[in-house]
Input
Amino acid sequence: MSAVIVIPAYEEAACIRDVAARALAACPTVVVVDDGSVDGTSAQLEGLDVRVLRHAENRGKADALWTGFTAALALGATAVVTIDGDGQHDPDDIPRLLEVHARYPDRIVIGSRLHDRANFPARRYYANRTAGFWISWAAGYPIADTQSGFRVYPAHLLQRLRREDFIGRGFTLESEVLILGSRGGVRSIAVPIAGIYPKTARASHFRPVADIALIVVMVAGHLLRRGMYPLGLWRSLGKPELVRPERT
Output
């Protein structure tokens, strides 16, 4: 297995060096996509053996991820790990997710925070659960933590996805890839992780009401194409598949 870590980052000067350095400890190939930051995010990475790709202007997380996916595939990745640059995921969990990927190489492995209810901000928790209902319906199976950006993607899935396949054009890419993956026979599996909400991080870009509305619109497009997919709703009502890696 050849893994490449992709870290999308926008205005993450406070956290990005620590995240990237710890990611390097887990995997020798790390790609950071600076999505037009003006706070010196890229400068914080000087001296680290990471590949830094920079957008001239802020284009949004979807484009940052796509740039990272393209770079990772060009480097020969068979698995692409994504982890946010804001410090809300623990890079020390990367080996745990990769271990599960090795056992389930044709799945999207999601680091799920939903079991860690006590530490999950209430508004974001309920927004996440709402998004999860709709995305699971369109995907046709129950998915844990659809809004987690800490994932392992099999390269063969990313290789066959095209931007024109996506209805959404913004941050909804991470949600939509779960739907498109399912249609191609690639489902997700979840690994429990702790959510981290550091005081030094900038405020979250996530807007619970507005962003969930965008997700619902995107999902509605997929459901309407499939006659509302009532069977998908039925299939989505079970419990998401959760596995625990052997390493702790």
